[in-house]
Amino acid sequence: MMIKYIPYKKILLCVVFLVCLSAWPKNSWAEFRSLVGFRHILLDEDFSHNTHPNDSFLPNAGQSGSAGVTTLKETDWIVAGARYLHETDETVFNLDLGALIGEHNEVKSKNANDNRADNIASFVYSKADMGIHSAIGYSWKKGRFILGGEAQFAVLFLESGWDRFDNQEEQDTKYKFIPTAGPKLGIYLWDENLLEFTVQGGEAFSAGANVQLKLW
User: Could you say which DSSP state residue 165 is in?
Assistant: First the structure.
């Protein structure tokens, strides 16, 4: 008699999941919260700019990078998203997902090969306006305070291009993945609403503050 294939790996994963579930503290609860905050991320991202096709009369216009280089360094972001919480009387586990909205993260400079007056010269720019925020954290509770660690993962969408006569035209777009980790400290303000602060290191230096809000 033919013996059918038995999915041993799937069965083993199910057993491990059930064991972990049974071992989870009984005095625990899971909830969702909204999350708003601010994040400062230090970058060192260079953008090489070609001369705009309509400025072919400028010196070395046909050479790659002839318009110069711009560099994005200090960037500020508003965080808006949701948080999944799993809490016990002594610990807090969180998973975050949300959007990063850039605040004046733009660098603009005059073409390196353009010596005309600023009011008629061509410029180049680079900026970071949008991104994705995610995080995973674990903390211990003591009274109104929490202390723990968090790993954050940001994906930033970066754009560079030409700024001619106050009209921006995109030349290139790319994204940058920034994993960071570090400690966090929080204090419960009222009705389980939490104010927390993080300092992160890794692919970049990052610091920020979030407010975890209970809306219902």
Answer: T
Q: What number of residues does the chain have?
A: 216
Tokens of 128: 């970071």
How far apart are alpha carbons 139 and 195 in whole angstroms?
Answer: 13
User: Do 200 and 181 meet the contact criterion of CB atoms below 8 Å apart?
Assistant: yes
Q: Which two tokens stand for residue 13?
A: 């994963």
Q: Which domains does the chain have, with CATH numbers?
A: 27-213 (2.40.160.20)
User: Could you tell me the two tokens for 46?
Assistant: 């260079």
Q: Name the pTM for this structure.
A: 0.81
pLDDT digits (tens, 9 = 90+) for 72-102: 999 999 999 999 998 888 899 999 999 999 9
Q: How far apart are CA 20 and CA 90, in angstroms?
A: 18
Q: Does residue 13 have a pLDDT over 70?
A: no
CA dihedral 159, 129, 41, 35 (to 10 degrees): -150
Q: What pLDDT digit, counting tens, does each position of 150-197 carry? A: 999 999 999 999 998 888 999 999 999 999 999 999 999 887 789 999
CA 117 from centroid of its chain's CA atoms: 38
Give the Cα separation of 143 and 151 in Å (integer): 24
The residue type of 27 is N
For residues 192 and 170, give the distance between their C-alpha atoms in angstroms, rounded to a whole number.
Answer: 45
Q: Which two tokens stand for residue 72?
A: 């994005």
**Dihedral Cα 21, 26, 27, 29, nearest 10 deg:** 30
**Which DSSP string do the residues of 141-171 spell out, in sequence order?**
EETTEEEEEEEEEEEEEEEEEEEETTEEEEE
